[in-house]
Automatic annotation (TrEMBL):
Keywords: Cell outer membrane, Ion transport, Iron, Iron transport, Membrane, Receptor, Signal, TonB box, Transmembrane, Transmembrane beta strand, Transport. A motif (TonB C-terminal box) lies at residues 749-766. Gene3D superfamilies: TonB-dependent receptor, beta-barrel domain, TonB-dependent receptor, plug domain. NCBIfam families: TonB-siderophor. Residues 49-73 have a biased composition (Low complexity). It is found in: Cell outer membrane. SUPFAM superfamilies: Porins (SSF56935). This is TonB-dependent receptor.
């Protein structure tokens, strides 16, 4: 614990010191560019004052019957109200990241840009990476419960966990991205380690590919991509919104949201979100109870900007959605069981997260901004944690062992740096110098119980855990620090953008015994460092076309082997991953299309015959991504994407598997959605979404594969002011309309997708 305090003091000192010191056919077209970062300046217009018509000189004055006043008194003019404060300019293309985010693109479902870590707030068209920035409008209209419900709109993102499970684990470009690797306003470790509730989200910023230079080392080592959550801020227009909602089978709740700005120029803002829900959700005889309170305070001055986020999240789940391992030598993959069933009956899961985070920016000049941010999160999990002592066979039979697996983590995360924009001759520069620090203390308690025979279609009651349930014990300390510099140079009136940078990262991890006779003793440690480079280029042969390419490396801290393996507690060495990518982006005015080819290579993490985790050879994912989003026709919004991946094993220990596909990576995926304002009923909109995921192999032997699956979602909403004089929006959605039952997988560990789910809500503005 003293180590935690020392690192915390060091980070505070560092922050304080830093503050002080798809085709090219449209190329000839010239549509309105919806994603230009700079505002167009209109030429000055002079307006002549109207001339008063002269009176006729020959007109004879008529005598008055009453005495004429000596002087005419001018009528009083009513005092003109002061002009309303101007809306804050967008941060996109500036040295700021605190303030109004990038404007929404045509259709409002995605934004024109986002905050891309070390690169700052940048337009999509100026970014040498594949990025998508989902807006709160899309989140609300699809009635997302967590960030995961929105991210699957992109075909390169899939989930390996189902709704009402332990957490939201993502798969981006074929590589796992843990919920612990989701950033909050640019800092790792501050969002919930399980799931991010949709009610606090203003933007979800998705970066595809390794982001070690952009954001630093992800706590759990994600290399497939990065996810950053931008929290809500008070809007210029005050509102109070009350939203009761219902989710099948019998889960109901209430969302209260308020927003208000204060001050002569609305410089102070306060936004509050409170959510309470309870009742059976997607698991039969289960219960999902959740409480959320979130306060966001911000100040926006001429030079100084400041934010503060405080939120507490508490989730209690009875009968949460389980995961299980399949027998790798099985002759057939068992059919997925009923999606509302739980093959580990009577499980309990209690999750708590409390976060405080603040950030500050100050414009030292009109071209130089100093910034700093720091946050702290305290999280804990208490759960019944059954596991398959023997994997599931083709008939669904397995041996289940019941355990308790409780854990906690305390995380301190921060950054400090300078962003600048200046010219040297004919070259423009966007230079950023930054320091980041991350420290996490983690503990756990793994208490094993008895074992019994069971079946996923007819599960047996869980055996008892007879040992005492002790509090989690200190298990590991992780310290991740880095210094980074990046410069985006612009040439030829910003038609060529060259980005070069590097981040030197230091990784220190220590593991401690949680059982046995030497509880608390240091069992393993490593202290390593590495430099990850980045190079990217954007070429704009036309103002609406961006050709780009990048080379990026990711650095992953070593895996701490979990309690299910024979080498539990061992810290594996950190490793690097490498990405090459090239693509084209075309903004057609109200529709943007993108195409990208990529390759990501990293060491493979396998489970050996001795049930130990280890690295083995290399996994190389090569792929093609196609995306479209925007306003297809007036009143018709849409987005569509397709991803094709070849996840090849290039250097396995077993030579017979060379060239085989990695386990659990689908070869293709598609996502497509439409949202339509009906012309015959004012205020009525209909929407639909199709999600398809292709087949994936059970093991690297490539003898068995999971079948592909397709999910259909539909919905409608109706907005009216006839009831209260203020907007009232009714929403109804059905997810998995056809009730498909399918496996979600990363290989041997699987779960089932959510069943048909009904979502109803009514948002009342006051």
């Amino acid at each position: 614990m003293s180590n935690f305090k020392n690192n915390k003091n060091r980070l505070y000192l560092g922050v304080a010191a830093g503050v002080v010191t798809a085709t090219v056919a449209s190329l000839s077209a010239s549509p309105v560019r919806a994603q230009e970062a700079e505002r167009r300046v209109l030429p000055p217009v002079s307006v002549d004052a109207p001339q008063q018509r002269a009176r006729s000189a020959t007109r004879t004055a008529q005598p008055r019957a009453t005495p004429q006043r000596a002087a005419r008194v001018a009528p009083r003019r009513a005092a003109e109200p002061p002009p309303p404060p101007a809306a804050p300019p967008t941060t996109m293309g500036s040295t700021r990241t605190i303030g109004a985010p990038a404007p929404a693109y045509a259709g409002g479902q995605v934004a024109q840009g986002g905050t891309l870590g070390l690169l700052g707030s940048t337009s999509v068209m100026n970014t040498p990476f594949s990025t998508v920035n989902f807006t709160s409008q899309l989140i609300q209209d699809q009635q997302a419960r967590t960030a995961a419900d929105t991210l699957i709109n992109d075909s390169s993102v899939r989930l390996s966990t189902g709704s009402d499970g332990f957490d939201d684990t993502f798969v981006i470009r074929g590589f796992a991205v843990s919920a612990t690797d989701v950033g909050l306003n640019g800092l790792y470790g501050l969002a919930s380690s399980q799931r991010v509730p949709a009610q606090i989200i203003e933007r979800i910023e998705l970066l595809k590919g390794p982001g070690a230079l952009i954001n630093g080392i992800a706590p759990s080592g994600a290399i497939g991509g990065g996810i950053n959550i931008v929290t809500k801020r008070a809007t210029d227009e005050p509102f109070l919104r009350l939203t009761p909602f219902f989710m099948s089978a019998a889960n109901y709740g209430l969302h209260l949201e308020t927003s208000q700005r204060f001050g002569a120029n609305k410089e102070w803002g306060v936004r509050f979100n409170g959510v309470g829900r309870n009742g059976e959700a997607s698991i039969r005889d289960g219960n999902f109870q959740s409480g959320l309170g979130a306060v966001a305070i911000d100040y926006r001055g001429d030079r100084l900007r400041w934010t503060l986020d405080l939120f507490s999240q508490n989730d209690n789940t009875d009968n949460f959605r389980p995961q299980i391992s399949l027998l790798p030598t099985a002759t057939a993959i068992p059919a997925p069981p009923d999606a509302r069933s739980n093959w580990y009956p009577d499980t309990r899961l209690r999750q708590k997260d409390n976060t405080a985070a603040t950030a500050l920016e100050y414009d030292l000049t009109n071209w130089l901004t100093a910034y700093a941010g720091v946050g702290y999160r305290d999280g804990s999990n208490y759960q019944t944690f059954p596991r398959s002592a023997t994997a599931v066979d083709a008939l669904g039979n397995f041996q289940v062992q019941n355990t308790y697996y409780d854990s906690y983590s305390k995380t301190l995360s921060g950054n400090v740096g300078f962003r600048s924009r200046f010219d040297t001759g004919f070259i423009g520069h966007k230079l950023n110098v930054a320091y980041t620090g991350f420290f996490q203390e983690a503990g756990n308690a793994y208490i094993q119980g008895g074992t019994t025979a069971s079946n996923i279609y007819n599960p047996a009651p869980l055996p008892a855990v007879t040992l005492d349930r002790y509090s989690p014990r200190h298990a590991s300390d992780s310290t991740l620090t880095s210094v980074a510099v990046v410069d985006t140079m612009s040439f030829l009136n910003e038609s060529v953008l060259l980005t070069l940078g590097g981040r030197h990262q230091m990784v220190k991890q220590e593991s401690y015994a949680t059982t046995g006779t030497n509880i608390g003793a240091l069992t393993s440690t490593y202290d390593a460092s590495a430099t990850t480079p980045l190079a990217g280029i954007v070429v704009k042969p036309w103002t609406n076309v961006s050709l780009y390419a990048n080379y990026a490396e990711g650095l992953t801290r070593g895996t701490i082997v979990g309690g299910n393996f024979s080498n539990a507690g061992t810290i594996l060495a950190p490793y690097k991953s490498k990405q090459q990518e090239a693509g084209v982006k075309v903004d057609w005015g109200t529709i943007t299309t993108t195409a990208a080819v990529f390759q990501i290579a990293r060491p493979s993490l396998i489970t050996t015959a001795a049930n130990a985790q280890a690295y083995d050879g290399e996994q190389r994912n090569r792929g093609l991504e196609l995306n479209l989003y925007g306003l297809i026709l007036p009143g018709l919004r849409g987005m569509a994407s397709a991803t094709f991946i070849n996840p090849e094993l290039t250097n396995p220990t077993d030579p017979t598997q060379r060239g085989n596909a990695a386990a659990g990576v689908p070869d293709k995926a598609f996502s497509a959605g439409l949202d339509w304002d009906t012309p015959w009923v004012r205020g009525l909109a209909l929407n639909g979404r199709v999600i398809h995921t292709g087949s994936a192999y059970l093991t690297t032997a490539n003898t068995l594969s999971f079948p592909g699956w397709t999910r259909l979602d539909i919905g409608a909403r109706y907005t009216t002011t006839a009831l209260t004089g203020k907007p009232v929006t009714f929403r109804a959605n059905i997810e998995n309309v056809t009730g498909e039952t399918y496996w979600l997988t990363t290989g041997t560990y699987v779960t089932v997708g959510a069943p048909r789910t009904y979502l109803l809500s009514a948002a009342f503005d006051f």
